[in-house]
Amino acid sequence: MLIGEYQHNIDAKGRVIVPSKLREGLGDKFYIVRGIDRCLFLYPESRWIEILEKIKTLPWTLEEVRKFSRKFASTASECEVDSQGRILIPQRLREYAYLEKAVVSIGVIDRAEIWSREKWEEYNGTDDEDGEDEDLARKMAELGI
């Protein structure tokens, strides 16, 4: 189970620490890929394989399937953790997620995400003046959660 929020920095070479709690959940072999909302997704190998198997069952004759498959697979990289618990994030992924210095890693149940701290704060916010949390709670109740 991947949970929690961790703040750290990315170095000049594009390496970032994957917190030990997230590494435990990700396992020895995991994959990084362009995510949604300008963040990066990190998948444990078993979940990565499940996703790829599901994508393979989709009809490639649909333009959306071809486009998604190409974007998803072409941005993916297998991660190698160094002796200091860091991974090297490819340049194209750093650019996509606006990773320059301060980053936030979060656990999202079956994957981890890496965000620029600025983008995470914009996305996550700290208050609920607009009632978004209540709207989300209602939607989750509709889905049976």
Largest sheet: 6 strands, antiparallel
What's the total number of strands?
8
Number of separate structural domains: 1
CATH C-level class? Alpha Beta
Helix content: 25-40%
Q: In angstroms, what is the radius of gyration?
A: 16 Å
**CATH architect. name:** 3-Layer(aba) Sandwich
Number of helices: 6
- Beta content comes to 15-25%
What would you give as the CATH superfamily?
Transcriptional regulator MraZ domain
Q: Quick one: overall form?
A: globular
The CATH topology is: Chemotaxis protein chec
Spatial gap, N to C terminus: 18 Å
Ranges with pLDDT <50 over ≥5 residues? none
Summarize the structure.
The protein is α+β, with helices and mostly antiparallel strands.
What is the secondary structure topology, with strand pairs?
Elements: E1 5-9, E2 15-17, H1 20-26, E3 30-34, E4 40-44, H2 45-56, H3 63-74, E5 77-79, E6 86-88, H4 91-96, E7 102-107, E8 112-116, H5 117-124, H6 132-142
Antiparallel strand pairs: 1-7, 2-6, 3-4, 3-5, 4-8, 7-8
